[in-house]
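Notes from hallway chat w/ T.B., transcribed later so I don't forget. T.B. wanted the structure written out for a chain they're using in a teaching module, and asked if we could keep both sequence and structure tokens in one place. Agreed to drop them here.
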Amino acid sequence: MARALILAAGRGERMRPLTDATPKPLLPAGGRPLIEWQARRLAEAGFRELVINHSHLGAQIESAVGDGSRFGARIRYSHEASALETAGGVAHALHLLDDEPFVVVSGDIYTTFDYASLAGPIAAIARDPRRTVAHLVMVENPTWHARGDDMGLRDGRIVRGAERLTYGNIAVFHPGMFRAIAPHAPLKLFPWVYGFVDEGRVSGELFHGTWDNIGTPAQLADLDRRLAR
């Protein structure tokens, strides 16, 4: 199974003061740090080679998560002196992700998404990256992002100008996408990735299951209550 990168470098400004002393991915919900839910589910789905990028209070993440052996995986770390955003962070970690398509997920979401189901998109991207260079998992627009993102789905492809959906912070990427990004350069995933979308080279799917993007202390508390039940 391919490698996976868990994004954990963000400062979590909207979560302050909780994130002043604790990195956002280590905030607990349901008795576990957010990032541990991700690491466990990825390992259970067969992703045994994991990379975690970090910046803000990153040493705490390495200490808390460790080498991955308790999840049945191997975890390596990509340190960023200052956070490089998603695309920049992926480019910075490429040397740990080899030359095959890899999964990228955020360390601050909670979801029941089945990561093993990404085997098909991984194989399609590996087989013909000129046709499909990435695969994005989309979700229905949450109340706090009611207008969605500037993209939707049509016949299994990500397109713009369709009914807007929200990017679920789960994706498969071909490493070739990121090799032209300057080293140590901060770069957001959007709108950069729209260049590949407009070329018709990005597939997608709509996930209807449990998905929470934890952006505020109130959202974290709500998730914690639901998991406790």
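Follow-up for T.B.: The helical segments are 18-21, 34-44, 58-65, 85-93, 119-127, 194-198, 217-228. Might be a good example for the class.
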